[in-house]
Fold DYW domain-containing protein.
Amino acid sequence: MAAASLLCHVIARSAPAGRSRRCLLHSNPHTAHPLLVAFSRLCAHGPLRDALALLPDLAEAGLTADPVAVSRLIKLCVRHGTPSDGRLIHRHVFGGGDVAAPSCSSLFVSNSLVSLYAKFGLLDDALRLFDGMPHKNVVSWTTVVAALANARGRKEDALRLFVAMLRDGVAPNMYTFSSILGACSTPRVLAAMHGSIVKVGLDSDVFVRSSLIDAYMKFGDLDGGRRVFDEMVTRDLIVWNSIIAGFAQSGDGVGAIELFMRMKEARFLSNQGTLTSVLRACTGLVTLEVGRQVHAHVLKYDKDLILHNALLDMYCKCGSLQDADALFGRMPQRDVISWSTMISGLAQNGRSIEALKVFDMMKSEGPRPNHITMVGVLFACSHAGLVEDGWYYFSSMEKLFGIQPEREHCNCMVDLLGRAGKLDDAVKFIHEMNFQPDSVIWRTLLGACRMHKNADLAAYAAKEILRLEPDDQGARILLSNTYADLRQWADAEKSWKMMRDRGVKKDPGRSWIELGKQVHVFIAGDLSHPCSESIIQELSRLFSRVTNLGYTPQTEFVLQDLATEQKEDLLKYHSEKLAIAFGTMNAMEGKPIRIMKNLRICGDCHAFAKLVSKSEGKVIIIRDPVRFHHFQDGVCSCNDYW
DNA sequence: TTAGGGTTAG
């Protein structure tokens, strides 16, 4: 008998040989059955396979296993097993899957099994078992609430179950609250939940606090998160990581880095999670200084792929392709994210041809591309005007890589066709695609209409956006700018008036530049900077230098009905020109001037930056919300196509 | 027996 020999083997291994033999041969009703003894030992110490192999023998002998042993087995299974092992345990424990008549009726075991299913992602099995349980305690409820809260698209179900739990008279504990907080769907629900937590006195629990911080941050409520954080007496690494991640994800890079510094002052050692968030925070900064410092910390985690991907992205987003290239070249491992990051990074920095070369390399030696890789590839095509390549990749991605085109890919195609001036093709594409066009698609078309000065189509696209999103300010601004481009001042004024009536304000152009540890912000037309006088002098100097190289003000970029002279004045003080002048005044030898912008760069500033890079022999890098412009020796990396 | 944080695009 295979089972008997296995049993001898197990007992021989886990107990003195003489005793194990005696156990097997002389089992009596006053001592535990040897099968049960062996089973318990295997459940406690493994191996899992041997413990599982004993389950049929237990059933055959009509024995009921010790709930503690079964619970341990389930834990072992979660660690080393597969979902099918979980189902096997379930069958044996509950006699053929009949939940109503379990052979091992412990609540303890049922809870463990529900948890096992949840951990293996078998939500339906977990819920079925939970529903059939005659008795449920706070652990049973918490396990399913947590499982639903963590599952995609099941947050509402988690909340419903939480309410059912309260109705059932079961009081939630800190485990329950730390799970359900992630499922709060609106700030109001979150506030109510926070209130309940305080009321039952569970707000001092560090797990509950970190979930609270995370929940506030997910709604973009940095102050709310910060308050919860500041009130804490004892903090652990995860709490620090939560708050830093929250700030980084909300786009407050400076805030995230300040917190990181405070964490170091509090003598907490960072881990990979901290550094990943800090790197993300650095992607929103102008300079590379902090990013490089973090790079030094990353060196000790040389096998951490996630961290290296974050580092790669940081270099791309800070416009330092040299560092990104070098890092990508020496990364010991590269996954689909590394490749996608590199492709998108190159594309955003105006190096589309190289991006497509990296994609070719990926096809031959890298992992299989995913839908995000393809977004990067199509972005590369659209920003370089490679219409044919874009069409090829779009139409063959399903056949070549099994990736069905999604909304994002369609949007890239509208961008590709629109930018290239093929507006009719773009409209045809929108009407023929497999999705109902959304406001994103129409906005892309509207941007292209403005670029190619097609007011009729712009009005059509803007109307579609406003039909879908009546409060969209961007659509009204773009529409009025299009009228202004066409010198249709009456229409532009009508559109502006509508915005004024609705209280919509145009976001002024802002550029910022970092000097030392200070960030200097320049707003279009605003000369309140303490160095304004010298900035104006420097601008005059630059204007005379670039005029010698052929610069003339391109007044068509002024979107107001003014005299030429006034238009030139407005152009002169665009925020990026102020920042460029400030940059050349304070430039360091051999270092590029890095500027960030809140709006897309205008054509006149673009021409100005190109010529300044030539006349001053400086590299100027301007990052706008969509892409980078690297100006060097009179040329821009975007090849004047943006 | 139940709980909290980190990467890629737009």
